[in-house]
Amino acid sequence: MEVIYCDNHIIAVNKTCNEIVQGDKTGDTPLSDMVKAYIKEMYHKPGEVFLGVPHRIDRPTSGVVLFARTSKALTRLNDMFKSHEQITKTYWAIVENGNRLQAEGDRLEHFLVRNEKLNKSFVVTPEQAAKNKEAKNAILSYQPLVKGDHYTLVQVNLETGRHHQIRCQLAAIGCPIKGDLKYGAKRSNPDGGICLHARNIAFEHPVSHEHISITAPTPADSIWQALTAKISNE
């Protein structure tokens, strides 16, 4: 487990694509339990360790996950994530068919409907959305960062927080995320994850009110290394 920020009120971890944030039906040890164990050992905490989970990212996604170490921090972070105010989340994605992206970037707005049984979101037309109370407006902006021989690295900034939003919206414009078979990728990744990485989270500290910006290093596999190296060289 890679801890990338920690103070008395919050702790941030760089999640791998194989870890789950909270427990689910798989029975696998969740990241939240690992963080509790880390705090207990690192700070010699007696008894039960408090840890709040103000947000989650999908299991096949990697990157920064923020936890609260105090109830005061949890309450304020919950409000931030719910209102999307005082907090900014930036993702990096490696996508197929990069030639379909606007070279200067674009802002995407769709209506999404979540299918619980399939654990998947679908784009619907505005007319369909008007008749479906489950439809939710989803907005993001993207900016291509570097184009490789087969894939393109894209930066994504979310304006809303919908189920599988980035995966669904990029697939809707013909650019599925590498490894994301559920949304149309050509093949899976060897590690079973997808090339979507929660790169940075910036926010007002819930207690000190300082500006905090936490960046998660990208995965160590070859495709991430090759594309991010091009950014460094430009």
Write the layout of secondary structure elements.
Layout lengths: L1 E5 L3 E6 L15 H12 L19 E7 L2 H13 L3 E9 L10 E10 L4 E5 L1 H5 L5 E12 L4 E7 L6 H8 L23 E9 L6 E5 L6 H12 L1
Parallel strand pairs: 3-9
Antiparallel strand pairs: 1-2, 2-3, 4-8, 4-9, 5-6, 5-7, 7-8, 9-10
Describe the structure concisely.
With 234 residues, this protein is of the alpha+beta class.
Q: SSE order, as H and E?
A: EEHEHEEEHEEHEEH
Shape verdict: globular
Q: Low-confidence spans: pLDDT under 50, at least 5 residues?
A: none
How is the main sheet built? 10 strands, mixed
Main features:
alpha+beta; about 230 residues; 10-stranded mixed sheet; 10 strands
Structure description:
This protein has 234 residues and is α+β, with helices and mostly antiparallel strands. 21% of the residues lie in helices and 32% in strands. The protein has five helices and ten strands; from the N terminus they run ββαβαβββαββαββα. It has helices at residues 31-42, 71-83, 126-130, 165-172, 222-233; strands at 2-6, 10-15, 62-68, 87-95, 106-115, 120-124, 136-147, 152-158, 196-204, 211-215. Strands 1, 2, 3, 4, 5, 6, 7, 8, 9 and 10 form a ten-stranded mixed β-sheet that branches. The chain is globular. The chain starts with a strand and ends with a helix. 35% of the residues are buried.
